[in-house]
Amino acid sequence: MGRAGTIKTQHGVIETPAFVTVGTQGTVKALTPEIVKDAGAQVVLANTYHLFLQPGDEIVKKAGGLGKFMNWSGPTMTDSGGFQVFSLGAAYGKGISKVVSKNKELLLPEAGYDTDEKEAKPRLVHIDHDGVMFRSHINGDAHYFTPEKSIEIQHNLGADIIFAFDECTSPTESIHYQREALDRTHRWAKKSLIHHKKLGGEQALFGIVQGGRHENLRKESAAVIGAMDFDGFGIGGSFAKEDMNTAVQWVNEVLPEEKPRHLLGIGEPLDLFNAVESGCDLFDCVIPTRLGRNGTIFTKRGKIHIGNAEYVTDFSPIDEGCECYTCKNYTKAYIAHLFRGKEMLAGTLASAHNLYFIIHMVKGMRQAILDGNFEEYKESFLKHYRI
Question: Is residue 319 annotated as a catalytic residue, yes or no?
Fold first, then answer.
């Protein structure tokens, strides 16, 4: 089901499949826009909820929109704030991921939100028929998001591609609650679309498919959202890791073929290969930069932990043959020294490499599709990559 395509936006063309770089608060953590561009990024995604809280969507609008505000000249995207229904609700303070392995929680990083706390906290959201009441994680102030409010904020932020407001559920919720949340998401999708058209403008609006880990709900959601007049589609919500590929296929077999599909919050190499095979075009995740800031670095032979003693006197590049700025100029020993010394530059150099690695791995998938040798490319990559 893999395909190569192009998405035309006001600020440039996105060649797909493409990895979308996450810049939660209008910045890719530890990296300048110039470094992000040099890594090969085509598009940056920011977080509606976080930018609404600070500096405020009206300020971003006055600055000329997200791209101009952050000095990024290429395409931009914003999510709807729907993920915070999960991260500030069922998952808040518990470390629950939207991706689980069998009955065990798999602690994967999620876009735009960090927590190392072990104790559960009171939820910061309350969901009703019309929307969600958030309490700011910054100062506790209450804010009420409806589909219309989310769309208005995103219009102010001015990204090229925006998303309908949805409810991202926890994988631990019952099927009864998943059904209830799905009905809400479909209702909110329709309201988002109506309000988006009322406001006008050139932004593309993507609807989000939900349904948790359940085949019947996933297929129903793909049919309902796919029948609406969206410009593209996001695939969100919770998955069982072993069944993620199957769940994505359920959805993409139903969604219209001529419109782009964005798999939200996925960034591990094997998951990206599987997602491309299943017909996804775009993917976003904080994994490259978050791992980089914490000293875990991608290489062709798998991830390494630069804090390990073996790298203290290793004067080779992080990844032999890599053309990124970090590998062309610095050694493992130097980067290990920076991390041990808690220098800010450590996270910058590691993140720049990780971003380059994932972006170019996905670009390689695109070229392999065009060349008709995707299977060979995947087999060659995974033969050496330790998962």
Answer: no
